[in-house]
Amino acid sequence: MSKISKFFKGGGSAASKGRGGPSPQEALARLRETEEMLSKKQEYLETRIERELAVARQHGTKNKRAALQALKRKKRYEKQLNQIDGTLSTIEFQREALENSHTNTEVLKNMGYAAQAMKKVHENMDLNKIDDLMQDITEQQDVAQEISDAISSRATFGDEFDE
């Protein structure tokens, strides 16, 4: 595809949407980006919770209204943090499922490739010819064993007399 047609048709993800959806690698990359973004937001909310707790302690009994407002904000941040935890769990589950399905797809492709190779190798083999060859090999092994037995048997030159 030329550079001009890529420019007018769109690049990367736009082209993949035309093919029927993003590739597994693109989807995994996006899920990882989302996980990173949510992790950063978690860290931010955790620091905000600590800060609001410190403000509530600071105002303690002196300014109850400010302390209560800080505790309300802290509670709201904790609720957001719990939502992010749930979302992260869902995204991690989806990412793992996608990785597993991608792995299974690759394994299946490779097994199909190997099956085709085996089929090609066995194309020129005839079961009757193989059976005949195995019988010939067995016969030749028997002959070789007989020769070996004859050579290794003790020679009795002159020990036996014909009377």
Automatic annotation (TrEMBL):
Q: How does it sit in the membrane?
A: Peripheral membrane protein
* Gene3D superfamilies on file: ESAT-6-like (1.10.287.1060)
Tell me, which GO biological process terms does this entry list?
Answer: late endosome to vacuole transport via multivesicular body sorting pathway; protein transport; vesicle budding from membrane
> What coarse category fits the chief subcellular location reported for this protein?
cytoplasm
Q: Does the keyword Cytoplasm apply?
A: yes
Q: Which residues cross the membrane?
A: none
State any GO CC term: multivesicular body
Compartments, as annotated in UniProt:
Cytoplasm, Cytosol; Late endosome membrane
Instruction: Spell out the residue ranges making up region: Disordered.
Output: 1-25
Q: What is this protein called?
A: CHM4C protein
Please give the organism.
Sylvia atricapilla
Taxonomic lineage: Eukaryota, Metazoa, Chordata, Craniata, Vertebrata
